[in-house]
Amino acid sequence: MQHAFFSLVRSGLWGTPADELLFQSVSDADWEILYRMANSQALLALTYDGISSLPAELRPPRALYLKWAARTVQIEQANERLNRSVSELNTLYSEAGLHPVLLKGQGIGTNYRTPLHRQCGDIDIYLGKKGQPIANRILLQQGAVVEGEASDKHASYALNGVHIENHRIILRLNNPFANRRVQKLIGEWYPQGAETDYAMPLPPATFNALYIFLHAFIHFLNSGIGLRQLCDWTCLLANRSKDIDKPAVLRQLQELGLLRAAQAFGYIAVNRLGLPSNHLPIPIEDAKIPGEKLLADIFATGNFGQHDARIKPRPKGYWAGKWYTFCRATRRCNELRQFAPGEAFWYPMTLIKGTVAIQINRIKGRIIKN
Predict the structure, then answer these.
(1) Do residues 248 and 63 lie in contact, with contact meaning Cβ atoms separated by under 8 Å?
(2) Residue pair 92/142 in contact by the 8 Å Cβ criterion
(3) How many C-beta atoms surround the C-beta of residue 14 within 10 A?
(4) C or N terminus of the chain, fewer CB within 10 Å?
(5) Which residues, other chains included, contact 187 with Cβ-Cβ below 8 Å and sequence gap of 6+?
(6) pLDDT value at position 267?
(7) Which residues pair with 124 in a beta bridge?
(8) Nearest residue to 296 via CA among 324, 268, 258, 263
(9) How many CB atoms lie within 10 A of CB 214?
């Protein structure tokens, strides 16, 4: 089924017809499996595009086909809603003198052949350490509701049915030495170096080529990722190839101790998703073994680890849940340390620091309320 699945994905990514030979003997039950694969990898609309390239007699049974089509329409509508929100938020923040930069999500979707078919989630906006508190107040004034626990990286809100994260930090690597390098890279372009040809400014292409990978890899270590994250990186590398300083990205990955991990990602991008190898900023000649291990984990965990059948339910109770998450993430990180030993070594400390930061924010919140 994987060969048929990837044929649909590549068709959706590049607009090429899916391989009809792979679907000659696909049964109704097989199509159900393909649907579940697409759903767990957050690629329903993209694979629907692939299905649309097949002749009618090779497509899924009618009921499933209509279900797939309906989910695609829902994804389109969700993207349109988020696009409107991005434009509105840019106006609100800019008029307040802030310098918002859109991370991932709708911005990275512009690199897709059909942007509305990238399965969307929330809106992540970088505002810097000084700008984030102001943006938080603006959202509350607009009637936003606080969602979840604020971390030292971002605060989360819901406004008009849209989840928004205001970031004071774009991302943090576990290795403190590597993290300092990343923060320095951000300081070299923010805010004046952001690209301004979208509804909200975006990170420059070369930094984005590094960042999209880093964000995906951090989630991979923590709980898992879906193929959508690989598709994001693949589309960016393909669409912005001429604008990306590939030697700089390679050098940065080497300095961060993440070249081996990036090579595993690159192996999948080229050998499964169809990215031309000349768009990749790194060599992947010896990446088959880690690449196949990464791919196996992606199919086992699904999008952000949400479909991992191996995980036991999180226990009830705040601290019991925290301890469970800490143990699970630490164990997983240890199992995957071959991808980036430095990141794996420092990961438990990052979890502890994050929990401490959340508790400090909770205490501050209670003090303010009282």
Answers:
(1) no
(2) yes
(3) 17
(4) C
(5) none
(6) 97
(7) 103, 165
(8) 268
(9) 24
Residue type, 310: R
Q: Which two tokens stand for residue 237?
A: 């590398």
E strand or H helix that includes residue 152: none
DSSP 162: E
DSSP helix/strand/coil, 124: strand
Structure tokens at 73: 């329409």
Task: Chunk the chain into consecutive blocks of 10 residues (it has 370) and report each block's average pLDDT, rounded to whole numbers.
Answer: 96 97 96 97 97 97 98 98 97 97 96 97 96 97 90 92 96 93 97 95 98 95 90 98 98 96 97 97 94 94 64 69 71 80 80 67 53
Neighbours of 24 (CB within 10 A): 9
The vertex-218 CA angle with 5 and 209, nearest 5°, equals: 75
Within its chain, how far is the Cα of 269 from the centroid? 15
Question: Do 18 and 31 contact (CB within 8 A), yes or no?
Answer: no
Q: Would you state the structure tokens that stand for residue 309, as one six-digit string?
A: 């059948």
Residue 139's Cβ-count burial label (10 Å; 0-12, 13-18, 19+) is buried
Q: Tokens 């630490």 appear where?
A: 330
- Pull the structure tokens for residue 61: 């049974």
Whether a cis peptide bond, with omega within 30° of 0, leads into 133 is no
> Would you state the structure tokens that stand for residue 33, as one six-digit string?
């499996």
Q: What are the structure tokens assigned to 317, written together?
A: 């109770």
| Residue 53, both tokens | 């390239």
